[in-house]
Amino acid sequence: MLLFQKRFHEGLVSGAVTITFRRWDKPHVRAGGRYRCHPIGVLEVDRVARVVVRDITAEDATRSGFASRAELVDYLRAARAEPLDDATPLFRVELHHGGDGDRVELALEADLSPADVAAIEAKLARMDAAGPWTKKTLAVIDEHPRVAASKLAAKLGRETLPFKVDVRKLKKLGLTQSFEVGYEISPRGRAFLAARPRRKRR
């Protein structure tokens, strides 16, 4: 997990907050990692760098959710009992919001056994019983990540609301993740799509 005070949550979701500074003794996150941040979902880390307090800029403060550099430094000073000065080492973490968190744990489970793949296929087959839609929906999300649902629905010749209802069904299986705009295939979904052709050839 990557913890933030509640006052930063709105900025993290909107994209206003894209940096955090931490007084860690060693890095707790890595670039490319995805970390839960309750209750807003997942944060994806883009870059981790070792810096010192004097390196912090006014722009860094704004992107961290503070009104000024001085306010950010005061916040960092209060984070630990040890003194803080211009030479105090910090970790500068660049990140972005990576999904709303609904079914996050399942969506990140990408180590699928043949039984897992078969179970997902069976559930998708039941969803397709009244008419096939799951394969096309997964494909359009894969081809057009983070595109508005209305545009994705139009590509499939569907109404937006029913399309969104169906995507939520896929999301409950952990196959997709929602974003501020649009969707992406989740790590679990990608593992399933990669395993599905191999299974069909056997």
Record the SSE blueprint:
Elements: H1 9-14, E1 19-22, E2 34-37, E3 41-52, H2 58-63, H3 69-79, E4 89-97, H4 104-107, H5 114-127, H6 134-143, H7 149-155, H8 160-172, E5 176-178, E6 183-185, H9 187-201
Antiparallel strand pairs: 1-4, 2-3, 3-4, 5-6
Helix pairs in contact: 5-9, 7-8
How is this structure best described in words?
The protein is α+β, with helices and mostly antiparallel strands. It folds into two domains: 6-97, Sulfate adenylyltransferase; 104-201, Arc Repressor Mutant, subunit A (Orthogonal Bundle). The protein is 43% helix and 17% strand. The protein has nine helices and six strands; from the N terminus they run αβββααβαααααββα. Strand 5 (176-178) and strand 6 (183-185) form a beta hairpin. Helix 5 crosses helix 9 and helix 7 (149-155) crosses helix 8. The longest helix has 15 residues, at 187-201. The radius of gyration is 21 Å and the shape is elongated. The protein starts with 8 loop residues before the first helix and ends with a helix. The mean pLDDT is 90.
Shape: elongated
Tell me the strand percentage band: 15-25%
- Looking across the biggest beta sheet, what order are the strands in? 1-4-3-2
N-end to C-end Cα span: 40 Å
Helix vs. strand class: alpha+beta
Mean pLDDT: 90
CATH class of the largest domain: Mainly Alpha
Please outline what is shown here.
By secondary structure, this protein is of the alpha+beta class.
Highlighted features:
alpha+beta; Arc Repressor Mutant, subunit A; 6 strands; 202 residues; single chain; 4-stranded antiparallel sheet; two-stranded antiparallel ribbon; Sulfate adenylyltransferase
